[in-house]
Write a structure and sequence with these properties.
By secondary structure, the chain is of the alpha+beta class. Among the domains are: about 30 residues; about 80 residues, no CATH class. It contains 4 helices and 4 strands. The chain has a 4-stranded antiparallel sheet with strand order 3-2-1-4. α2 packs antiparallel against α3.
C-alpha cells in the first residue's frame, strides 16, 4: 500500500478521535440519555397504629357508707306515739317507753335490710389499639429503555420523556411489583 495513503488514514483517525474527545464524547461511549417508557406513582402500604376510645356507662352496687340512724329514730318516735295511746297513768308511761324501745329496734332492723347497698352510676373510658394499613406515595416508578433492555428504578421526581443514565445508574433497581 502506498505510504501516503496509510499516513493520511492515520492522520484522519487521529483528528477524528481528537475532535470527539474535544467535543466531550468518546467514540465508544455509551448513550447519555435513555427513553422513558412509563412513569407512575410508587405506593407503599404501611401499618399505622392508633388508639380508639369510647365511653361506657356502668352501674355498680356499693355498700352504704352513711352511718345515719334514721330508721331507729323514726321507729322510736312512732313506737313511742303508739305506746302513749295505750293505758293510763304509770301504765301509759311504761307503754310509751316500751313503744320507744320496740319501735327503735324495728326501725333499725328495717333500715339495715333496705339500706345495705346503693347503686352508683358512672362512665368508664375503654381504649384499644387499632392497626390500619395506610397507603402513601414514596416516589415515582420509572421504566426506561437502554441498549434494548427495560429497567425499573424509583425516583423522587417524574423525569419526563428522557432520563440521564448517570442519574439512574446511581440508584438501586426498583423491586418487582407484587
Amino acid at each position: 500500500m502506498d505510504r501516503k495513503l496509510i499516513t493520511g488514514i492515520a492522520i484522519g483517525v487521529a483528528l477524528a478521535s481528537a475532535g470527539a474527545v474535544f467535543a466531550g464524547r468518546s467514540v465508544f461511549a455509551p448513550p447519555e440519555f435513555a427513553d422513558v417508557v412509563r412513569v407512575g406513582p410508587e405506593i407503599v402500604r404501611e401499618p399505622v397504629a392508633r388508639e380508639e376510645c369510647r365511653d361506657v356507662a356502668t352501674t355498680r352496687v356499693v355498700p352504704r357508707d352513711d352511718n345515719l340512724n334514721n330508721g331507729t329514730i323514726i321507729g322510736a318516735l312512732v313506737g313511742g306515739a303508739l305506746g302513749n295511746q295505750v293505758g293510763g297513768g304509770s301504765g301509759r308511761d311504761a307503754a310509751t317507753v316500751a313503744g320507744v324501745v320496740a319501735g327503735g329496734y324495728v326501725g333499725r332492723e328495717l333500715d339495715r335490710e333496705h339500706r345495705k347497698t346503693r347503686v352508683v352510676a358512672s362512665t368508664r373510658r375503654e381504649c384499644r389499639t387499632v392497626t390500619e394499613d395506610v397507603e402513601r406515595q414514596v416516589g415515582w416508578r420509572v421504566t426506561y429503555r437502554v441498549d434494548g433492555q427495560r429497567r425499573d428504578v424509583v425516583m423522587d421526581r417524574d423525569p419526563g420523556d428522557q432520563v440521564r443514565i448517570a442519574e439512574v445508574s446511581a440508584l438501586p433497581d426498583a423491586p418487582a411489583r407484587r
